[in-house]
Amino acid sequence: MKTTVTELEDSRVRVEAEVSADDVATQTQRAARGLAKEMRLPGFRKGKAPPSLVIQRLGFPSVFEEALRAGLPEWYQAAVFDSGVVPIGDPEVEVTEAPSEEGQPLEFKFEVGVRPVASLGEYKELEVEKPGSEVPGDIIDRELERLREGMASLDTVETEAAEGDHVLVDFVGSLEGEEFEGGAATDHMIEIGSGQLIDDFEEQIIGAKAGTRSKSRSPSRGIRRGRTRRHRTRCSP
């Protein structure tokens, strides 16, 4: 495959290609074998006539026309690859010189859009203002506090429980003297003041130490009794 490329206006190119005589002959023989499947020639079973006899009987131009329909898409792709262009959109293909007999090449051309070439302007002397990076103090404080909370650990202490402390408790809830489903837990960790449990139950734990028993009453959920097993306080790094 031989190709030449000519640049046109509006980001288009023209590619002129020449298909060798050998490639034309190969495609013509292939087309003749396809045509032979529908032909019955004297001395041969249907579809078994040799390509050379089919070309002789139908004429080279007729067989080549069939070969061109099948081979042109393949030759177009080969021309694109050989020329190195990157086409955009559908090409406009034109056969400029078709072989009239065996042993001659084929010439065709096509025009197609290509990606435009970008050219850089003067950029070396450009000045760009660096955006400010000052962060308000309250945002810094909130982020530091978040990090401290994330890295904090819990230590067991013997002091009285206070708001913000974590305690490990057992509790049982009852309604009209009957324990209800889901109202009991063992070794349940709560943070005092977080509102995890009903009404004033957490308030009853404030000031408690390990082993302290407490009771809380809720108009809608009955009575909940609990015992503080362990008291832990948060230690930040």
Polypeptide structure, described:
- The protein is α+β, with helices and mostly antiparallel strands and 237 residues long.
- The protein has 2 domains: 2-114, Trigger factor ribosome-binding domain (Alpha-Beta Plaits); 152-235, Chitinase A, domain 3 (Roll).
- It has helices at 21-36, 51-58, 60-83, 137-151, 201-205; strands spanning 2-8, 12-19, 87-97, 106-114, 153-156, 166-175, 178-191, 213-218, 222-235.
- Strands 5, 6, 7, 8 and 9 form a 5-stranded antiparallel beta sheet that branches.
- A hairpin with an 8-residue loop joins strand 3 and strand 4 (106-114).
- Helix 1 packs across helix 3 (60-83).
- Mean pLDDT is 80; it is low at 219-237.
Which structural traits does this protein have?
alpha+beta, Chitinase A, domain 3, 2 domains, four-stranded antiparallel β-sheet, 9 strands, 29% helix, elongated, disordered C terminus
Q: Strand percentage, roughly? A: 35-45%
The secondary structure category is: alpha+beta
Identify the CATH architecture of the largest domain: 2-Layer Sandwich
From N to C, what is the helix and strand string?
EEHHHEEHEEEHEE
General form: elongated
Largest sheet: number of strands, sense, barrel closure: 5 strands, antiparallel
Overall tally of domains: 2
CATH superfamily of the largest domain: Trigger factor ribosome-binding domain
Mean residue pLDDT: 80
Q: How many beta-strand elements? A: 9
Which radius of gyration do the C-alpha atoms yield? 45 Å
Name of the CATH first level of the largest domain: Alpha Beta
Q: Number of DSSP helices?
A: 5
Distance between the termini: 75 Å
